[in-house]
Specification:
Length: 288
């Protein structure tokens, strides 16, 4: 009898405990969920480039007796997903923002459910280690999040670089990347080849890869030490990155909490530098 909980969530939570072949099959399923596993086991195994017994072992580790048992449970979940949205159309929202905001909040809740605490805390531990240099890379839709993360991370700790031009800067960054350094990579659908290549080459040089992606999982996941998968679907022609921003800010807060004295000293020195260079204009105090 399978354990309770969504199949997709259970598969994602089990990734770290799977064999290489099982993880390859699971990654393929998650990247094409749920359609990839609705066909025959032979078709799925061929698409994932694994054997049929590997697929069987994977679903058994998720608590199913076999592939047919797994498919029946998956079909029930898909039917529920198709019917559930009908209940959301009842009643008009009280505010024009409410419908969209409700989906964003639901995305944040789903993100919390699908990110393993061990991965979140593991990523924070890597970023808190002052002996490791950090390189942050974004993509077409996530370069702003990468820039934001790197900007605030530089306030917290030294040796942080942002790859502003993700088309060419990452090759140069590899020249200075040492074993033990951290590469933070943002990659959501449509996945970018540079992200996967950077992850592969950085990991080959001994760097620790932290991947911030979506629930379908960037191909870079194959080289990631820690993966933070976010929910990004909204009723629009684009994906929402609000959940990604929450994860970034929560991660930064976790890092700061691990380095309270060092961060405070760095903040004091930074504020002194701002004051000496008069980069910010002091607010005027007006009369009442």
């Amino acid at each position: 009898m399978a354990e309770p909980g969504r199949i997709e969530d259970r598969m994602r939570a089990a990734l770290a405990d799977l064999t290489r072949a099982e993880r390859q099959a699971a990654t393929h399923i998650l990247s094409h969920f749920p359609m990839s596993a609705l066909g025959s086991i032979t078709t799925l195994a061929r698409a994932a480039d694994v054997s049929s017994p590997t697929v069987v072992r994977l679903v058994q580790k998720l608590g199913f007796k076999g592939y047919s048992d797994y498919q029946q449970a998956l079909r029930r979940e898909v039917e529920h997903l198709l019917v559930a949205p009908l209940s959301l159309t009842e009643g008009a929202p009280a505010h024009p923002l409410q419908g969209f905001a409700a989906q964003v909040v639901a995305n944040i809740d789903a993100t919390l459910a699908q990110i393993r605490p061990a991965d979140f805390l593991g990523a924070a531990e890597l970023l808190s280690d002052m002996n490791r240099r950090v390189v942050v890379m974004g993509g077409r839709l996530t370069h702003a999040h990468a820039d934001y993360m790197a900007t605030l991370l530089r306030v917290i700790r030294p040796d942080v670089s942002f790859l502003a031009d993700h088309l060419t800067d990452w090759q140069q960054a590899l020249l200075d990347l040492r074993a033990g350094d951290v590469a933070v990579i943002f990659d959501i659908r449509r996945y970018e080849g540079n992200a996967g290549q950077f992850a592969e080459l950085a990991a080959a040089q001994g760097a620790e890869v932290v991947l911030i992606t979506d629930r379908w999982l960037s191909p870079a996941v194959a080289h990631a030490r820690h993966t933070l998968a976010c929910q990004i679907e909204v009723p629009a022609a684009w994906d929402s990155t609000a959940a990604i921003l929450v994860v970034v800010e929560a991660l930064l807060a976790q890092v700061q909490g691990r380095l309270p004295d060092a961060v405070q000293d760095r903040l004091n020195r930074l504020e002194d530098m701002f004051a000496r260079t008069k980069v910010f204009r002091a607010p005027k105090v007006g009369k009442l």
